[in-house]
Amino acid sequence: MNNFIFQNSTRVYFGKGCVKEYLACLTRDAQTVLLAYGGGSVRRNGVYDEIAGILWNAGKTVVDFGGIMSNPTYAKVQEGARLARENGVDLILAVGGGSVMDCCKAVSLAARYDGDIWDDFWARPGVIDFEPLPLGVVVTVAGTGSECNGGAVITNEAKKCKTGRDYPALNPRFALMDPTYTYSVPKKQMVSGSFDILSHIMETYFSEPNEDNVSDDIMEALMRSVIRNLRAAIVDPEDYTARSNLMWDATMAENRVIKMGKKCDFECHNMEHQLGAYTNCNHGCGLAVLHPVYYRHIYQAGLPKFVKFAENVWGIARDGRTDEALALAGIDALAAFIREIGLPTTLKELGADKAQLKEIADSCGISQGSYRAMTHEEILAIFNECYE
Ligand code: NZQ
Ligand code: ZN
Questions:
Q1: Where are the beta strands (DSSP E) in the chain?
Q2: How many Å apart are CA 214 and CA 216, to the nearest integer?
Q3: Closest among 49, 34, 196 to 107, alpha carbons compared
Q4: Torsion angles phi and psi, residue 116, rounded to 5
Q5: Separation of alpha carbons 106 and 133, rounded Å
Q6: How much is the pLDDT for 376?
């Protein structure tokens, strides 16, 4: 394994009823809470009322910050920061998925910083030498794992750039995770969020080192868990076992544990983020289109790992196949799973404009952790292969 330092500062409260049990205590020291949420699902499924009720009963001043969109924009971050400053907010409570959590991480920074946080922390890495506004999160959809890391992916519409940074200082102070809150997530979002989990694991798994390492073993178990539990949750959306496993799979994929001792390939994410900047496509859907095609481009550079993926994740027997044939059978199994769960398979379905593919490809970051580094020409070739 490569050398590493590990720390994760988020305290997790997991399980049915955890919000009712712990929220009042966790917000004890705050007087004014910025209650942040997305486009309204929490208003419809009762989660907002449960949370606001707990805060009101505890005598808090609640400042409403709703309407955080999927793929949150820098303009929305600035709106939240203004609200936090004007109202003397001392805690942000983000209730939602990755978009709400990421937006609030950036708000927590912007509310305590006089300069332009895009220029100083997202356009290039910065140094946070001050305390961001404290943030707690209540997760309502499994996927990004944002609850347990300092990552925040923000879209700057003016610059046509969607990019993430991971600052440990932005780790939420606490994360409340009640799997029953995810029962109301529509199937389309549940499968795309689950594919995002799988993508986070695969992007770490398919990178060096190749020799025996505990991170790869954990990842094989996690990938099998996502596949098994997603199938179960599709059959019964209120299967508590399935929903709780998916929720924790998501956290495990992005709480830094599996990244220890590994390089990480983030190329499909780099490509998807820029597709998102141009098309506003759903994150998990974009990843689903890209992964099989990208892997058919790079598998020869990481052949032994692709063989393990076929055997240990998809349970494919060798049956006289060469390594190359086995590796390709594993990628085919991944593509078949994407079709089985109903995710899109072409960029056209995502609303991408063929005439813009070169511009999008040229704007993508190049991952240095992949088995074989891409060029912008090869990214364009992948986009064209995925188009229809
Ligand atoms: O907005 P509302 O009305 O709440 O509806 C949301 C939204 O439409 C809905 N939803 C959430 N909880 C629900 C629910 N619907 C019914 N019942 C519930 N309990 O789900 C939809 C998607 O929500 P969103 O937060 O956008 O999805 P996700 O969690 O996939 O987050 C996507 C964002 O996170 C970024 C992505 O790029 C994208 O911007 N990522 C963040 C990462 C991180 N911080 O570590 C890593 C990821 O790779 C990713 O890039
Ligand atoms: Zn992702």
A1: 11-14, 32-36, 61-65, 91-96, 135-139, 151-156, 161-166, 174-177
A2: 5
A3: 34
A4: -95, 110
A5: 10
A6: 98
Judged by its nearest atom, the ligand closest to the C-alpha of residue 287 is: 2
Atom of ligand 1 nearest to the CA of 181: 19
The confidence score (pLDDT) of residue 367 equals 95
Distance 37 CA to ligand 1 centre (A): 11
> In this predicted structure, what is the pLDDT of residue 3?
86
**Closest residue by Cα to residue 329 from 318, 340, 339:** 318
Do 214 and 205 touch, CB atoms closer than 8 A? no
Q: Which amino acid is at 236?
A: D
Burial per residue of 307-318, b for 16 or more beta-carbon CB atoms within 10 angstroms, e otherwise: bbbbbbbbebee
> 143 CB less than 6 Å from ligand 1?
yes
Strand partners, 64: 35
The domains of the chain are located at: 11-182, 187-387
Q: Provide the CATH topology of domain 11-182.
A: Rossmann fold (3.40.50)
Does ligand 1 lie within 6 Å of residue 194's CB atom? no
The predicted pLDDT at position 4 comes to 86
Tokens in use for 110? 């912007």
Omega before 209 cis (within 30°)? yes
What's the CATH fold of domain 187-387?
A: Dehydroquinate synthase-like, alpha domain (1.20.1090)
Residue 337: both structure tokens together? 């799973």
Cβ 38 under 6 angstroms from ligand 1: yes
Closest protein CA for atom 49 of ligand 1: 144
Q: Which of the residues in the chain have pLDDT under 70? A: none
- CA dist 8 and 289 (Å) reads 32
Strand partners, 163: 154
Q: What is the pLDDT of residue 1?
A: 82
pLDDT tens for 160-181 read 999 999 999 999 999 999 999 9
DSSP bridge pairs for 130: none
Residue closest via CA to ligand 1's atom 18 equals 185
